[in-house]
């Protein structure tokens, strides 16, 4: 059962989740994939609640999000999802069906086409209202060297050669799965 929440009342809990890891899920062409992120922001822009996620250009989930313009954020409320977060942060959806492999459950969405993950019950359904690719020339040299070394193949999971795209998702629905 889903219990609607006021996203503004849960900002601290959302950010605490991002710091330790949350799942971003995309869906397109009957493919669903969740990936772990720990870079993100929640706030207000254009008078709307917004979740900003940063996804590397070469990630499979990014290709799904690009096709639909939607994503969900699934946030753990305790430590029970550590295995899911670890697995989804180290395997590519190009190679493995993560939900099938781990046995987690996709929850039917209400306002988007993208499901949340039942085992990470605080869910944000988001529709992209803006996106921006990072500009390597606008970064400090320190961050460029630390987070985007150019001597790494960008095709393997865990690579860090390619930059991120910032996706600003309007939070069109927020709930806790009970």
Automatic annotation (TrEMBL):
This is Flavin reductase family protein. GO terms for molecular function: FMN binding; oxidoreductase activity, acting on the CH-NH group of donors, NAD or NADP as acceptor. It comes from Blautia obeum. Belongs to the flavoredoxin family. SUPFAM superfamilies: FMN-binding split barrel. Residues 22-176 form the Flavin reductase like domain.
């Amino acid at each position: 059962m889903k219990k609607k929440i006021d996203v503004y009342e849960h900002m601290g809990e959302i950010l605490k989740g991002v710091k330790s890891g949350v799942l971003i899920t995309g869906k397109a062409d009957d493919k669903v994939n969740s990936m772990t992120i720990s870079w993100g922001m929640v706030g207000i822009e254009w008078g709307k609640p917004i979740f900003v996620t940063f996804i590397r250009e070469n990630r499979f989930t990014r290709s799904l999000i690009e096709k639909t313009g939607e994503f969900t954020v699934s946030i753990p409320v305790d430590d029970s999802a550590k295995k899911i977060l670890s697995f989804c942060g180290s395997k590519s959806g190009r190679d493995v069906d993560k939900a099938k492999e781990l046995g987690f459950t996709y929850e039917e969405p209400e306002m988007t086409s993208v499901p949340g993950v039942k085992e990470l019950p605080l869910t944000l359904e988001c529709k992209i209202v803006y996106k921006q690719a990072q500009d390597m020339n606008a970064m400090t040299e320190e961050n460029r060297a630390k987070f985007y070394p150019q001597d790494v193949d960008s095709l393997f999971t865990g690579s860090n050669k390619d930059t991120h795209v910032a996706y600003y998702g309007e939070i069109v629905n927020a709930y806790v799965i009970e």
